[in-house]
Design goal:
The protein contains 9 helices and 9 strands. By secondary structure, the chain is α/β, with parallel strands linked by helices.
């Protein structure tokens, strides 16, 4: 059985599913995959790096005018290192060739990517799927929502036997109270998983412009990285197919 983590953006593998991923890379090292579904190029950090205005994270100003492609490549570097530090086998990190544009991933695109990745394993008839839950208490990132909706629909269609929908790290309040009809579980990282999570969070803060490392994660959502280190807990809904 394959564990497939479908994430929308570079950092979701950590800030949303990192607690699960850090554990499952120990339990199912060969069979755990992370699939990136967008280019991550829609982040406003691209303007912070090149607008020559004062940066809230660093003293002074930045003059790194990156194209969308260059910015995406820089984010991919952070993503690859984070996955590696979380314990994912290098060959099991997939940046999908037909990934969508950040902020505009449609359900049709998400379904194509999910089905295409599943087709890479024709000898495997079953999968465990992990994604961000589309159940939100406000305006959710459309990429997260598209992936979550499609994963739940495909699960209901019987395409895989297990689905974990992780509460979005941007969720305000307690999703267990907002959606009290759902059965949520909570998992806290153990000491070994915490070491991985801390290292992955630090890698998103790496500032080495000469090497194409621009601390994009920290410029964007530094608070989320601090929170996953301060409180390495994930809340999720686990759906399991009932055998007939």
């Amino acid at each position: 059985m394959k564990n497939l983590y479908f994430v929308a953006h570079q950092d979701d593998e950590l800030n949303n599913t990192g607690v699960l991923l850090a554990r499952e890379t120990d339990e199912y090292y060969e069979d755990t995959y992370v699939i990136l579904c967008t280019d991550g190029g829609g982040s406003g950090v691209i303007n912070v790096l090149g607008n020559n205005e004062s940066c809230w994270l660093h003293e002074g100003c930045h003059k790194y005018s990156l194209s969308r492609k260059e910015f995406s490549v820089a984010r991919d570097r952070e993503f690859y290192e984070s996955c590696s530090l979380l314990g994912v086998k290098d060959d099991n990190v997939i940046i999908h060739k037909d990934r969508g544009f950040d902020g505009s991933l449609s359900e049709e695109q998400a379904e194509f990517i999910i089905r295409d990745v599943m087709s890479l394993f024709p000898e495997k008839s079953d999968f465990r799927i992990r994604a961000v839950s589309p159940y939100f208490n406000g305006r959710q990132n459309p990429d997260h929502k598209s992936i979550g909706i499609v994963c739940e629909r495909l699960f209901n269609d019987g395409l895989f036997s297990e689905l974990i929908l992780v509460a979005d790290s941007c969720f305000e309040g307690d999703c267990r109270k907002v959606f009290s009809e759902k059965e949520y579980s909570e998992e806290k990282a153990d000491d070994k998983a915490f070491v991985k999570i801390k290292a992955a969070a630090d890698c998103y803060g790496k500032w080495e412009p000469e090497n194409g490392r621009f601390s994009i994660g920290w410029h964007s959502v530094k608070g989320e990285f601090e929170e996953i280190v301060r409180n390495p807990v994930v809340v999720y809904e686990k759906l399991i197919k009932i055998s007939e």
